[in-house]
Every structure is written in structure tokens, then in C-alpha cells.
Amino acid sequence: MERHAKLKLALMTMSFTVTKVAEELVAPSGGTAAAELSLPLSSLDHAMGLRFFVEVVAAYEGGGLLQSPADAIRAALASALAHYYPVAGRLVVSDEGELEVACTGEGVWFVEAKASRYSLSDLRNLEFPLVIPKEELLPCPPPSLNQHEMILMMQVTELKCGGFVIGVKFNHMVFDGVGAGHFLNAIADIVRGLPGPAVEPVWLRKAIPAPPMRHPKPPPTVAYNFVRSLRDFSPHAVNAIKDSYARGTSNRCTTFDALASVLWRSRVRAIGLEPEADAHLVFPANVRHLVNAAGGGYYGNCVYCLTVTKKSERVARAPVGEIVGWIREAKGSLAAKFAAWAAGDFEEDPFRVPIGYDALNLSDWRAVGFHEVDYGSGTPRCVAPLNDHCFFAGGILLKQPAPEQGVRFVGQVVTKEHEEDFVQQLKEFV
Length: 430
Hints:
Layout: H1 2-14, E1 19-26, E2 38-40, H2 43-47, E3 53-60, H3 69-83, E4 90-93, E5 99-102, E6 108-115, H4 134-137, E7 152-159, E8 164-171, H5 177-191, E9 226-233, H6 235-249, H7 255-271, E10 278-286, E11 303-311, H8 312-317, H9 320-332, H10 334-342, E12 359-364, E13 382-385, E14 393-399, E15 407-415, H11 416-426
Parallel strand pairs: 6-7, 10-12, 12-14
Antiparallel strand pairs: 1-6, 2-5, 3-8, 3-13, 4-5, 7-8, 9-15, 10-11, 14-15
């Protein structure tokens, strides 16, 4: 009994795995000349309806340039904010009732933390269930600060092995994935000794077209009890799908095309929609190349939503190569559809995308920049999105944890009753 009591006490003690050593607002170094400026958001920021925080963590080896990761990153964050001065501001409501950024220079909430019981190897490549609860890896300001007005928050959790975990929450109204990747890489550039960001940031929201806005889509009301899915696809598995498509069509396809086809068909087969019911695949496409004035360092939302819709039975029965063709056809229409949207020449708002259980929303984070952030000890061992959602089926493609070279899919795309069928459908490809 005494041994059992000691074990229970040890487990209770272990539940608090992270110690928050220091918490503060980090302001731009040297201040900012635009401290009182208010900046409007773009039509794409508003069209996406993205007033929420994206939660992401990345795990790193120790060593390199970093003797104290938290100190180095805190200092570099202040320097980066001098270039990204709006990020140190706050989201406010304008006189016209629209969200905009007030460049107050108040700063980014920054947390230095330690998880002295854990090494990088203990974290199991950030697979779920997380060894350290996500709430302990992500920053959370005190009630005296309104976090809904904040644009970005950051936490550095140092591990006993010298490795560390970066936890970030960024407001999707201000950043898309590529934009957040720019900002994190700017911090890393400065940590490694550069005088400033290698890619100069661009705010230029006025470069984004502003067609007449349609009435916003009503918020979803049906919630689903999604389970978490994680599947790794080896390079061999991915290439087999791509090679099969090439043999059948004499055309090439991307890794996204191949895996989106597999994931969509597997899910449609698993969830058992009525044969004549519509099934949807929704994915964002980067349109920076179609908005030339925005420049390479543009960090606002700059994506257009593409949707592929087919009857459920057709998706379930189609060869993977045929589904790849549908996806490539949708991607091929991007320039024309974006131009029509920019000119206001559309009846159905392309941003009012399907979000019911009949739709799979899939994003690709492999090239947005998160996997390239190097604070001096190398790129991250692994990256993981941590958002929980219950109103839409959403998944993300990531690079497989190093040193593997494949692709990792993580998501919340099926309920418990369909989990086993979804897993069985994917076994053919993993």
C-alpha cells in the first residue's frame, strides 16, 4: 500500500511537467516610428474568416549557437519586431466596425520555460497523446492581457538534454502559414548572427484585390467528436502513387496531389455517405505569384480556396489516378478563378467553402517555412500543429520527423465510429 501511495504521489507530481521561469511582453528593440499608426487588413484576411490562433510546436536539438535558447530567441524576437512592427501591436475594431491592427508597440507575449525531467527523445516526435500536455508547451498571457487582441505569442521550453521546444500561437487574421514562417525565420536569422531578416517583410495589404464582399457565412453549428489521426508515408509509398499516375497518363503529379487523392478516397469510403451525396475536398492555394505587388516577404493571408466536388460513389470507386486528375484540374483553374474573384465576377463566394462532415479540408505545411527555421542548432526534428477543432474535418501534411524523408499526415477528420475503416483504407498506402 505504501508503495502504491508513493507511485500515486509521483504521478501527481509529474502532472506539472513544465516550469514557467519568466513571462513578459517583448517590445520591438529601438521602438517604432509608427507607434500610433492603424493598419487595415486585406480582403483576403477578412474573406477567410480566420479570427483564431493557429497553435504549432517545433522540437529542436541543442547545441550550435545557442547556449541559452530562451535568452537568444527573446533578444532576436525584439530585433525582428523592429522590422515586423505591426506584430507588436493589437487587433482593434475600427470606426467602420472592421478589424484592423493598431501599431501600439506593446509587444509579443513571451514565455521562458523549463521541462527538466524530459529529453528530446522522451517527446516521441510530438506524437499524440503528447508526453507534455499542449497547454504547458504553448504561451498563455494572464487575464490582465486580452489575448484575443494579440497577434502572436511565443514560448521556449528548454529540456534537460539541451534541446528545446518552440511553441507559437499566431493570429490567422494577420498571418497565413507562409507569413508566419517568414516571421519565425526572421527571428532565427537574427539568432544566427544576421543583422536583420534575410527576407524583408512586406505589409502591403492594399496590393490585395478588394472585390465587393458577400455576406459572411454563418458560423457552423454542428459539432463532431473527431479523433486524431496520424499516418506516415515513406518516400517509397509516395513515389509508388506518383509513378502509377505517370504510367497511366504520361504526366507528373506532386506529392500533395498523390496524398490528397489517397486521403480523400480513403475517408469517403470510411464515412459511408449516400452514393449520390456530394463529397468535397477543400484546400488552400498560395496566390502570391498572382499578386505581384505583394512581394516575396508578404506575410498576410494570400491564399485562395479550391474545392473539388464529386458524388460520393464516384470518389469511392475511382482509381487514385483519376482523383489526382481532378485535383490537378482544380489547381489548373487557379489563375482564372482568382482573377474572376479579384474582379468581383463571381456568384458563389469561393471562401464560403463546405465545412460539413461530407468535406475534407487539407493543408500542406511542408513548404510554408516552419520546417526550415534554424536557430543555430539545425532545423527542427519535428513540427506539430496542436489546434483542436470540432466543426470541420481538417488535416495537414508535414515533413516526417528527421531523419526520415517521408510525409506525415496529422488531422482530425473522422469520428470514432469511422476510425477503424479509415485506418484500414490507408493501410494499402502506408
